[in-house]
Amino acid sequence: MNRLTLDIRGMTCAACAQRIEKTVRKLPGMDEAAVNLASEKLFVTFDQDALSEQDIRQAVSKIGYEAYRKTATVDEDRQKKQAEIRAMWTRFIISAAFALPLLYIAMAPMIKVFTLPVPGFLDPMMRPLAYGLTELALVIPPAAVGYRFYTVGFKALFMRSPNMDSLIAVGTSAAIIFSLYQLTRIAGGDAAAVESLYFETAGVIITLILLGKTLEAVSKGRTSEAIKKLMGLAPRQATVLRDGSEVIVPIEEVVAGDVLVVRPGGKIPVDGVVTDGRSAVDESMLTGESMPVDKAVGDQVFAATINQAGSIRMRAEKVGEGTALAQIIRLVEEAQGSKAPIARLADVISGYFVPIVCAIALLAGAGWFIGTRDFTTALTVFISVLVIACPCALGLATPTAIMVGTGKGAEYGILIKSGDALETAHKADTILLDKTGTITAGRPEVTDVVVAAGGADEQTLVLLTAAAEKDSEHPLGRAVVQYAQARGLALPACVDFASLTGLGVEAKVDGRAVLAGNRKLMTDRGVDVGALEEPAAALASQGKTPVYVAVDGALAGILAIADVVKPTSRAAIASLRAMGLRVLMITGDNALAAAAIAGEVGVDGYLAEVLPGEKSAEVRKLQAEGSKVAMVGDGINDAPALAAADVGIAIGSGTDVAMESADIVLMKDDLADVGTALALSRRTIRNIKQNLFWAFGYNTVGIPLAAGLLKLFGGPGLSPMFAAAAMSLSSVSVLTNALRLKRFRPPRSAGVEASVSVETVGSGTLDGAQIRSFDSKEDNMEKTILRVDGMSCQHCVKAVEGAVGALPGIESVAVDLAAGVVSVEHDAALSPADAIASAIAGQGFDIVA
Predict the structure, then answer these.
(1) Active-site residue, 31 included
(2) For residue range 351-367, what is the model confidence (pLDDT) as tens digits?
(3) Residues whose CB is less than 8 angstroms from the CB of residue 428 and which lie 6 or more positions away in sequence, other chains included
(4) Which one of 271, 434, 646, 673 is the catalytic residue?
(5) Cα 135 off chain centre by
(6) What is the spatial order of strands in the sheet that 605-607 belongs to?
(7) How far is CA 416 from CA 228, 433, 684, 747, in A?
(8) Secondary structure element (H or E) that encloses residue 232, with its range
(9) This model's pTM is above 0.70
């Protein structure tokens, strides 16, 4: 199967998108097709043996749209979009320049409260023909600049696939044609016909729709800012060594195997390996980490990261679409083009919306004509229904929120691969964390040094052990060497080194015989370990591996080695629990080690001694209990479990094959991003629901009003001009609401480096926002005050009170809705301030101070 993304030109509403999807899906060999109205893209997966790209383009072209591959650079594309928006503003200004005086001269004679000046030759009672011809002259420019409504709308109508343009074209054409008929009556001497002119209705409708479309285009551009920023990171040129000389070439000409030169301040052109030199590279665009990463010969470097220090040479390995940056861009684009299950109802309705609206308009118009015998009233109702209906709001409700949400995730190093994953993630109630590499660092480190009585001092013990282990390939041996080197110890040479499989090592260091290994090694060599029996057992109970060290046949001490917990894990797990999630740990380690880690990080439970192949079975057991499971792992060893889970989350694997096995990829090796991903999912789905509620609600209320529901009971009718204004505002309001997602901030936990340094009293920080906690008279009791953004009603208040009140140790919760302030009295030992903040953020609100 081949994947392809094509840009689409000519779409104006959800009906257009639905029509393209239906047409393309019918092609032989087509597996999947999805159109994103907001980004104006077609995403297809097809059998290239049965179908070609040209076939797809021709199919789209036959129904009146253009499908093409974008060849422009990011800058060129941005300039083109800006030029299009400038042209749209120009068309609107021209239309408004004629529609406003048209509206003035049409409405001035009707205003009785005060008199508006009108030239005598335009008095409709005295000069009806001049008045009518002037209105005709003023409506021509708006109709001319809005010509596309007619060319596209009538074409779609004649092809039996009407869209929003068809509604506008039919409605305004009816107004203009009816007015032309009345103008002929005026010319024939019937002056009373001047009261039935509707030229201003057509002119104002076109102007308002042009304004709405222009604002919509501006907003749509803002929804795709994240992907444009990513694409803008790609370097344009590279310095390549050719025949011993440095040659600057376009990035497209770099091939795998080329040797490139990257100087300080320059961008790494492609993915590759350092072959000469040392430097520090800013990889924040890839991982989100602000600290530069040291690079030396043999280290990997990635396209678009910035070389900060020394000059390096590198060998190109992955170029073009193979780079990590290109994969990220592809993932984000595919996610933005995908559809969440929540959008299916809107898609179904959009496919039938316009024909149903046309039928309602005809029936309503006919009904009013039959009931009143007043053609003017019937025409007003007919036009109002056509104009007020807004398929655009339905079509934009979901894709705009997904675009902004996935783009925002990418800014934080969170790649959500589909709308399906985005929606499923918000339903997750159980988080299953792999231990090694997820909760822990994934590499052994020395955690404790115990010196035997009468033995060497601690520094000497470490020095001798590290020297003996220097030639060892065992991970525990390397951990001891790294521990010594980190403390600046110069390791002496060792002789007679021997690796004893399953036991340890032996060597001579400075003439002294050194043994380092497990208890069995000591027993086999006759070394008495009884003096350190108790500390060794205590270390083992904590999940640590005791390495016994003997020097010249006597026990010298123990070095405890363990896969240490990441600094952020405990706080991240506390935040997940504060969001109302059950957090479990799964590991292949023995029960003793698992219990030690589980107790240290505070998970709700753990599964120990589980083989990699059995992890997926454990996931299915949890699902059988009714849980929605999010599995978090490294994406390689845990691939079966990631695939089996409702949501698979690969952590710290931004450049790995984990991108293909997980639903969500966390670029940073930080467990706190799991909470960020889930909070973003909740916020995005909440935003989609708001958009759909508005879109459905607007059309459900607006169409009956336009059809004369109030007028039927003696109330006012709805002017077509007001209907046009409401229709334009509905699309803009949906887009504006989706753009609120750009204000999303991750619910950071204590221990995570904040982006802004702040003073904090008695507590931690949340994404740089200060949480002030004031100690009360009781030892652990605190009062935490948070300023919260996004609360708007009593339902929000109850959501906050419920989330915080569910935490342990909460004495009281007070919410001041008007001030946007939440005050909590709590036991800091049971529920720290960050847990409270995370609980509130988990409900979709922002902690701002």
Answers:
(1) no
(2) 678 888 889 999 999 99
(3) 581, 628, 629, 630, 646, 647, 678
(4) 434
(5) 50
(6) 414-416, 664-666, 647-651, 629-633, 430-434, 582-586, 605-607
(7) 17, 18, 12, 17
(8) helix 225-233
(9) no
